[in-house]
Amino acid sequence: MDYTMEQYRASARAIQDRLGDFVPKVAMVLGSGLGYLGDEVENPIAIDYRDIPHFKASTAPGHKGRLVFGTLEGQRVAVMQGRMHHYEGYSYEAVSYAVRVLRLLGCDTLIVTNAAGCVNTEWKAGDLMLITDQIKMFSESPLRGENLPDFGVRFPDASHLYTSRLQALARETAQERGIPLREGVYFYCYGPQYETPAEVRAVRLLGGDAVGMSTAPEVIVAGHCGMEVLGLTLLSNMAAGILDQPLSEQEVLDAAAAAREKFSGLVRACLRKM
């Protein structure tokens, strides 16, 4: 176990000292190239990760590495502009550390976004996908080690990590806005190398529609501590072996920039209805 309950509380206290009476309700974890939503927060209070006790740095391209608190579409939000990844050398408990801290601060809902490779050959790069479930079975759990009962039980149920009510809200919102919204399973691979064509074929056989290097650890922890979760994926590229071309991080960032208006509009409209 990497962290104690006192360390989580120390991080929360340090943040609350900066926030005063402000209590966030919706935590938002924004993936590669999608952190611009944090720049749209009203009356923002920005806190760099390096200024929060026990937080790790975010080193992935397109990640600013800070928390932004304020209001967005009438909701009190805590926006993570950048997340930590296992491939950066962090344990899964460190990767998901911020989710528990935000829960202590008052967040009861998590909106999690990512850019991922499209595995479903019936879809195309640039599509948005509502995450209905996830697969993370080939690496250790962020809940490994001593359980902290202040957050949840030793053996939490994972039948509904992604909240049905919020999925319905996202479907309705996308339809109202005329945004095609795929629905599928997010398959977690820890990277940092992109998957091989053989691995992508295996992901497809196992039921994955998109494959990426984030999200699953944070969602497991959010479920453990009783948070409702909405997950949205930008299918930034076709996964390895589907097209005869190499993959690159620039392709991911370019796709995120191209989908900015569509993606931002969907997330903001969902926030208005929460």
Low-pLDDT residue spans: none
Return Rg in Å. 17 Å
The residue fraction in helices comes out at: 25-40%
The termini sit apart by 34 Å
Number of strands: 9
CATH superfamily: Nucleoside phosphorylase domain
Please state the structural category: alpha/beta
Give the amount of beta strand, in percent. 15-25%
Total helical elements: 8
Can you summarize the main beta sheet? 5 strands, mixed, barrel
Shape: globular
Q: CATH topology, what is it called?
A: Rossmann fold
What is the name of the CATH class?
Alpha Beta
Order of helices and strands: HEEEEHHEEHEHEHEHH
Supply the CATH architecture. Answer: 3-Layer(aba) Sandwich
Spatial arrangement of strands, main beta sheet: 5-8-7-6-9
**Average of the residue pLDDT scores:** 91
Overall number of structural domains = 1
Descriptive keywords:
8 helices, Rossmann fold, alpha/beta, 274 residues, 5-stranded mixed barrel
Which helices and strands, and how do they pair?
Elements lengths: L4 H15 L6 E5 L11 E7 L17 E7 L2 E7 L10 H4 L1 H9 L3 E10 L9 E8 L28 H14 L3 E8 L8 H10 L3 E3 L3 H9 L3 E11 L10 H10 L1 H14 L1
Parallel strand pairs: 1-4, 1-5, 5-9, 6-7, 7-8
Antiparallel strand pairs: 2-3, 3-4, 5-8, 6-9
